[in-house]
TrEMBL record:
UniProtKB keywords: ATP synthesis, Cell membrane, CF(0), Hydrogen ion transport, Ion transport, Lipid-binding, Membrane, Transmembrane, Transmembrane helix, Transport
Entry-linked PANTHER family: ATP SYNTHASE LIPID-BINDING PROTEIN, MITOCHONDRIAL (PTHR10031), ATPASE PROTEIN 9 (PTHR10031:SF0)
Name of this protein: ATP synthase subunit c
Cellular compartment(s): Cell membrane
Gene: atpE
V-ATPase proteolipid subunit C-like domain span: 15-75
CDD domains assigned: ATP-synt_Fo_c
Transmembrane segments: 20-41, 53-76
Protein family: Belongs to the ATPase C chain family.
Length: 77
């Protein structure tokens, strides 16, 4: 086994770990967005529909981070 093979295997493992770490951020973000929406609905139930729409927009932006993470995983793999 030469140095190039070891380096290629190491870069692949680092990319895999990097995506695993990158997936933690959006998961925490979605949890915060949903939790704050539940708090908002509990405080003002009449705004439930509007808060739900804003929650889905927030989740979409947060999940965009996960897509960027998986794209960088494939770039650096």
């Amino acid at each position: 086994m030469d140095a190039t093979t070891v380096l290629a295997a190491l870069e692949g493992n680092v990319a895999t770990m990097g995506y695993g770490l990158a997936a933690i951020g959006p998961a925490i973000g979605v949890g915060i967005v949903v939790g704050k929406t539940i708090e908002g609905v509990a405080r003002q139930p009449e705004l439930a529909g509007r808060l739900q729409v804003l929650m889905f927009i927030g989740i979409a932006f947060t999940e965009a981070l996960a897509f960027i993470g998986i794209a960088t995983y494939f770039i650096f793999q």
